[in-house]
Design brief:
Layout: E1 10-17, E2 34-41, H1 44-52, E3 59-66, E4 70-73, E5 80-84, E6 90-96, E7 103-107, E8 111-117, E9 124-128, E10 134-137, E11 140-143, E12 159-164, H2 169-176, E13 184-189, E14 192-197
Parallel strand pairs: 1-2, 2-3, 3-5, 4-6, 5-7, 6-8, 7-9, 8-10, 9-12, 12-13
Antiparallel strand pairs: 10-11, 13-14
Length: about 200
């Protein structure tokens, strides 16, 4: 059985398998502000229980997470979510109902769909990869490199990172039209890195 001390402020859990029948009372972490999971095998249910036990969690770092087909993150307190080398071959990443979320960092995320819903304070996003076939942010939908209709835009994001396997100015301009309040745009092309100030 897994137990976390109720006085923990920071926890780093790694190189293990978390059981899907985790009991919420044993994980009660009323003071935990930062949680890192790395090289962890975990089910969607176990992540839900773990997050619901962290009442003031502000930062969640997930690296090399395994055995979860659909990852759903929902929290009223999270400000930063960072994925690194996570979800290879997985179906869907859903970040939903995160009213305080300011940064969503997706380094090395490779899944079919990324959905971001109800994140009204989101300011930093990316890098968004062409390997993700569908990205939905509120009412804005990207299908691969095809920019969405010009009727929708995300006005809160002011720092955006995009990742491409080759130069594609048309796709970059299409994405730019959807983020009218950008201050910084980072474009990663294969091994090259370019920074634009908008």
């Amino acid at each position: 059985m897994i137990r976390l001390a109720p006085t923990l402020l920071v926890a780093r859990i790694g190189m293990c398998k978390l059981p899907s029948d985790i009991a919420a009372p044993s994980l009660n972490s009323p003071l935990l502000r930062k949680l890192t999971l790395w090289l962890v095998s975990i089910s969607e249910e176990a992540i839900d229980v773990l997050l619901s036990a962290c009442h003031v969690l502000e930062a969640l770092f997930l690296q090399d997470i395994h055995d979860v087909g659909r990852l759903h993150i929902s929290s009223p307190t999270l400000r930063i979510i960072s994925f690194s080398a996570t979800l290879f071959g997985r179906e869907e990443l859903v970040v939903d109902d995160v009213p305080r979320l300011e940064r969503l960092l997706c380094r090395g995320v490779d899944c079919e769909t990324i959905q971001i819903n109800k994140a009204p304070k989101l300011k930093v996003l990316g890098p968004l990869s062409p390997h993700v076939s569908k990205i939905r942010i509120a009412n804005l939908v990207f299908q691969g490199r095809i920019p969405p209709s010009l009727g929708h835009s995300i006005c809160t994001v002011n720092i955006l990172a995009l990742k491409f396997s080759g130069p594609d100015l048309k796709a970059i301009l299409g994405v730019l039209s959807c983020f009218p309040c950008l201050e910084k745009l980072y474009v990663i092309v294969s091994a090259h890195f370019v920074c634009f100030r908008c």
